[in-house]
From TrEMBL:
Pfam family, one: Hydrolase
Record protein name field: HAD family phosphatase
Gene3D superfamilies: HAD superfamily/HAD-like (3.40.50.1000), Putative phosphatase, domain 2 (1.10.150.240)
Listed GO MF terms: catalytic activity; metal ion binding
Keyword match Cytoplasm: no
Domain of life the protein comes from: Bacteria
Cofactor(s) required, per the database record: Mg(2+)
InterPro entries (UniProt xref): Beta-PGM-like (IPR051600), HAD-like_sf (IPR036412), HAD_sf (IPR023214), PGP-like_dom2 (IPR023198)
UniProt KW keywords: Magnesium, Metal-binding
Annotated source species: Adonisia turfae CCMR0082
Family listed: Belongs to the HAD-like hydrolase superfamily. CbbY/CbbZ/Gph/YieH family.
Length: 246
C-alpha cells in the first residue's frame, strides 16, 4: 500500500529554474571560465549543484578540491538567498498547499528528496511557512557527488531515514510515490523501484508521459484515489500499465 510521498524541489515545489544557470554563470565568470547554456541544459539539468559544478569545472580543466567546491556552493547559496529576498512573491507552483493538505488527509508520510543544496530548501520552506509539512529533507548537501540523481541513492537514503524515525512504517520502495519534473529525478526514482508521477512543469506532458510511471500537467491533478489502488494490486502492475493522466 502507498505510505509515503517524496517530492522533488526545484521544478516541483518552486519555479526557480531560470535563476540557477544565471548563478552558475556568475560563479564561472568569477573564475574566468565560460558558461554554456546549451551545455547546461543538455548535460546538467536536474543534477545536484555539487555534481554539475564538479563536472563543469572538470571539463574546463580545473582540479576540484572539496574546499574549493564548498566555497563556490556557499557563494551560490548566498546568491540564491538574495534572489529569493528580491522576489515580490514566492514562486511556488500552483497546487503545492492543496497537495500537501490531501497528503495529510490520507496520512501519508511526506519528504523532500532533492539535488538542491539544503540551504536553498530551508530558505524556501521557511519563507513559505512549510517547514513542518515535511518529515524529512534529503538534499545534495547530505549525499556525495556520485550519489546525485539520476542515481537512486538519495531516494534509498530517504527510505532508510524514515524507517529509523518511524520503525512501524516498515517502508519499502513499493510503498512510496515520487513526484518529479525532470528526467534525472524520474530516472532516480525508477532506479530505486519507486513509482513516479512526472509533472509537466519543466518539460511538456508528452515527454513526462514517456519516462514516468504516470504523468500530469499540474500538481492538483495528482489523484490519490486513482493511484492508491494500483499499489494494492502490486508495484509491477502499477509500473507496467498504461500511463494516463492521474
Amino acid at each position: 500500500m502507498l505510505k509515503a510521498v517524496f517530492w522533488g524541489f526545484h521544478g516541483v515545489i518552486i519555479n526557480d529554474d531560470d535563476i540557477h544557470p544565471q548563478l552558475i554563470a556568475q560563479l564561472l565568470l568569477s573564475e574566468n571560465l565560460r558558461f554554456d547554456l546549451e551545455e547546461y541544459q543538455e548535460m546538467y539539468l536536474g543534477r545536484s549543484d555539487r555534481a554539475r559544478l564538479t563536472a563543469i569545472l572538470q571539463t574546463r580543466g580545473r582540479f576540484v578540491r572539496d574546499d574549493y567546491l564548498d566555497g563556490l556552493l556557499r557563494k551560490k547559496a548566498e546568491g540564491y538567498g538574495e534572489w529569493l529576498r528580491s522576489q515580490p512573491k514566492l514562486a511556488l507552483y500552483a497546487g503545492v498547499d492543496d497537495l500537501l493538505y490531501r497528503i495529510r488527509s490520507k496520512q501519508y508520510v511526506t519528504a523532500i528528496v532533492t539535488g538542491a543544496q539544503r540551504a536553498d530548501v530551508e530558505q524556501v520552506l521557511t519563507a513559505a511557512k512549510l517547514t513542518d509539512q515535511f518529515s524529512l529533507v534529503v538534499s545534495a548537501s547530505d549525499m556525495p557527488v556520485a550519489a546525485s540523481k539520476p542515481a537512486p541513492d538519495s531516494y534509498l537514503a530517504a527510505i532508510d531515514q524514515l524507517n529509523l524515525l518511524n520503525p512501524e512504517l516498515a517502508l519499502t520502495p513499493q510503498n512510496c510515490l515520487a513526484i518529479e519534473s525532470c528526467f534525472a529525478g524520474v530516472e532516480a526514482a525508477k532506479a530505486a523501484n519507486i513509482p513516479v508521477v512526472g509533472v509537466a512543469q519543466i518539460y511538456p506532458y508528452h515527454m513526462m508521459q514517456r519516462c514516468a510511471t504516470w504523468a500530469v500537467d499540474y500538481l492538483n491533478e495528482i489523484d490519490f484515489d486513482w493511484i492508491a489502488p494500483r499499489y494494492e494490486r502490486g508495484s509491477n502492475a502499477a509500473t507496467m500499465e498504461e500511463k494516463p493522466a492521474v
